[in-house]
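fyi for ur records
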Amino acid sequence: MKIGILALQGDFYLHKKALNYLGVDSIYIRTSDDLFKCDSLIIPGGESTTMSLLIKELNLFDAIKKFSTTHTLFGTCAGAILMSQCIDDDKVISFSCMNVKSIRNSWGSQIDSFKAEISLCKDFNKRNIEGSFIRAPKFIKNDNNCKVLGKYKKEDVLIRNNNHLISSFHPELDINFSLPIYKYYLNMVNE
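which gave:
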């Protein structure tokens, strides 16, 4: 298995560090040729409007959209926003592979960042983890094909559909707590 990590902006290197810790081969993705060398793609957190511009400039949109129809994607924070079907900002591109609406910066600006306990569903052995929320989006689930895997208070913060996974928080910042998320994702890739 080889995991691609979109490496345009954001903490992409921390996702690689988590995958290295689990002994999983990964490569940075900066071109469409790189993309089709991997079995799945992680779209990291960062700034969704900046990432949108870079994806357009590098002509990656069509390749990622096509890749998402046959491969698993995992989007964290800004990556999750890009994967959402509906976004509250028309400057942000949408791969429309998750039937959720994303509302950007829902918990405030950078200065309002926080760590909090996330309750995981019964699919996980470890039922609570700590997650970092940095200008994080809130999700509004639009259909029953999306399964909520994790909640912060009453908010859905970890959601999957048949092929894809999104998180509002940044699992790459808390590798000691978030390994169950990466393991779950890797199992999805193998399904």
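The chain has one domain: 2-190. thats all i got for now
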